[in-house]
């Protein structure tokens, strides 16, 4: 068990916990690792699709995909090594469809006999800036109850039903959080939620009960970075406040201080591209967000890369660090 740190000392880096999974989290971390903060990424382990799903079933291990993406995002390595970690085999019996980074994590898991140790060892190899922790080391499945009462099993299947989601839940419901993740939350100077898929990347972490209890207990500021676009099969038609309210309903109480939303206009040709897939911009309903007691930061924080809208990792990261420092100054003045 790590030794508890007695708060940030003068001159120490701010300690930031980032909770989520998927592409959105990885994009944010690529910017945040260049800021003067110590990062702990707590990552969902509910993935059951593709290479991760196969390794999960055949090797009885947590799914490595989201962990791999976060390790790669935080790595301080040559571009070629990143390509190696993300390389996906297209041919070969038993190899086709597998990602090399996933296989490296699987091999390290077999060698060390422990998934958390495997992640730490690979973090050392990749010179990762920060700590990467699974939310739990248990085998967790994500299930969804749809509005018509049907139950969908598996994170990868939930967005494919064409039905609206009523709620998601874990099997087992009493999944045990990783003790190191709880300690990181306890010691955090700030907790970031998102960006990422609301139902399949963010909520699977918050539904690990002990983990959310630690988040709620923390006196540190809690910031939610809202998605730029809705996600077909998950958040069709959702506003920014709808994202927040879904989280609150699932965990049973409000817990956020600040929400960061994009205010930049999105070019028509980009909107057309996303409309083909059924995605639309997430509307910043400022009045409702303020009714929820949230401090709202609405700024142009997106970029268009490789045909996709992404959060501008550096702009968002600088905004986050500025907010944390401001809140810490205010807390210090209140104590005085």
Automatic annotation (TrEMBL):
Q: Which domain of life is it from?
A: Bacteria
- Keyword set, alphabetical order: Cytoplasm
Q: Which InterPro entries match?
A: CofD, CofD-like_dom_sf, Gluconeogen_factor
Q: Which GO BP terms, alphabetically?
A: regulation of cell shape
Q: Where in the cell is it found?
A: Cytoplasm
One GO term in the molecular function aspect is: LPPG:FO 2-phospho-L-lactate transferase activity
User: What does UniProt give as GO cellular component?
Assistant: cytoplasm
Chief localisation class = cytoplasm
Q: Which residues cross the membrane?
A: none
Which NCBIfam families does the annotation name? Answer: CofD_related
Q: What does this protein do?
A: Required for morphogenesis under gluconeogenic growth conditions.
Similarity-based family: Belongs to the gluconeogenesis factor family.
* Name used for this protein in its record: Gluconeogenesis factor
């Amino acid at each position: 068990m790590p030794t508890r740190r007695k708060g940030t000392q003068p001159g120490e880096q701010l300690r930031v916990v980032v909770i989520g999974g998927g592409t959105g989290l990885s994009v944010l971390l690529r910017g945040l690792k260049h800021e003067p903060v110590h990062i702990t990424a707590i990552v969902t382990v509910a993935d059951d699709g593709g290479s991760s799903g196969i390794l999960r079933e055949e090797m009885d291990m947590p799914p490595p995909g989201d962990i791999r993406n976060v390790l790669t995002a935080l790595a301080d390595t040559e571009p070629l090594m990143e390509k190696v970690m993300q390389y996906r085999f297209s041919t070969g019996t038993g190899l086709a469809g597998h990602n090399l980074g996933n296989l490296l994590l699987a091999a390290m898991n077999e060698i060390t006999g422990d998934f958390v140790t495997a992640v730490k060892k690979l973090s050392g190899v990749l010179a990762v800036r920060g700590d990467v922790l699974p939310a739990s080391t248990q085998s967790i499945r994500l299930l969804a109850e749809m509005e018509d009462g049907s139950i969908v099993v598996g994170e990868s299947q939930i967005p494919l039903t064409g039905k609206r989601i009523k709620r998601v839940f874990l099997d087992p419901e009493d999944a045990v959080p990783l003790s190191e993740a709880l300690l990181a939350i306890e010691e955090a100077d700030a907790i970031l939620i998102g960006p990422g898929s609301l139902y399949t990347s963010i909520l699977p972490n918050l539904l690990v009960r002990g983990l959310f209890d630690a988040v709620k207990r923390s006196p540190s500021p809690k910031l939610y970075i809202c998605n730029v676009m809705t996600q077909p099969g998950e958040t069709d038609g959702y506003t920014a406040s709808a994202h927040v309210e879904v989280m609150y309903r699932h965990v049973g109480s409000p817990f956020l201080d600040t929400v960061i939303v994009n205010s930049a206009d999105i070019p028509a040709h980009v909107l057309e591209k996303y409309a083909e897939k059924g995605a639309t911009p997430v509307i910043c309903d400022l009045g409702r967000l303020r009714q929820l007691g949230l401090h709202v930061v609405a700024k142009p924080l997106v970029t268009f890369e490789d045909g996709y809208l992404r959060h501008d990792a550096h702009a968002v990261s600088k905004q986050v660090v500025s907010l944390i420092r401001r809140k810490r100054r205010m807390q210090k003045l209140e104590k005085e």
